[in-house]
Amino acid sequence: MVEPRMVVGLGTGRAAAMFVHALALRIEEGLDVRGVPTSRRTEELAKELGVPLVRLDEAGEIDIDVDGADEVDPALDLIKGHGGALLRERVVASVSRKFVILVGEEKVVERLGARASVPVEVVPFAVPVSKRRLEELGAETSLRLDASGRPFVSDNGNHILDAKFERIEDASGLERRIDSLPGVVDNGLFIGMADLVLIQSESGFRRLSRD
Fold first, then answer.
1. Using N-to-C axis directions, what is the helix angle for 40-49 and 14-28, rounded to 10°?
2. Looking at the whole model, is its pTM more than 0.85?
3. Annotated catalytic residue: which of 3, 28, 48, 89?
4. Are residues 124 and 61 in the same domain?
């Protein structure tokens, strides 16, 4: 799906990193493309592998954005953000002509929230208020910590609250309610955004398309 002279969104996480490695091999063979990374981690990997990069303001519209997800439901709605890059991932996806998701079979669920919490990016000052409001919505909420035990800091300088809901009956409505909370910058419910999901299994892969 990646063709010459395309601008390609480069997601964040394990599946996205595998894609960047595969793209780098094609670039070594002569493919002329430029990438827009969704995190500093992906930017560092792309530079290490020799993938040409372009800033978002220089790129304009992105031809294809390839990323992973933490959960995918039958309607192609997603939970994303356990890699900590949900805000930049959403921005890049929003200006992409095609948003492609790569997942393993274990990430496919009948209903969002079956296993994964919903990451919520919050400005540090508002963490206590946002945490309380998320719990009022029915979530069991915890502040994400880094490997050293300190609050995780996103590339945007924010913290992340992981909100686990017992059941998500109305993902679109919940997305709107979370976004309306004071101090919330973004949340990991990506509703109606993915165009194509490629699901890897032991026997190969299958496709889920919004079309």
1. 30
2. yes
3. 89
4. no
Assess whether 140 carries a catalytic annotation.
Answer: no
Domain assignment present for residue 137? The answer is: yes
Instruction: Answer whether residue 113 is part of any domain.
Output: no
pLDDT tens by residue, 37-90: 999 999 999 999 999 999 999 988 899 999 999 999 999 999 999 999 999 999
Instruction: Give me the CATH number covering residue 140.
Output: 3.30.70.260
Closest by alpha carbon to 210, among 104, 112, 98?
A: 98
* Strand ranges for the chain from DSSP E: 7-10, 34-37, 64-68, 71-72, 78-79, 99-104, 118-122, 139-143, 159-165, 184-187, 189-190, 196-201, 204-209
Q: Which amino acid is at 25?
A: L
Residue found under tokens 């356990």: 82
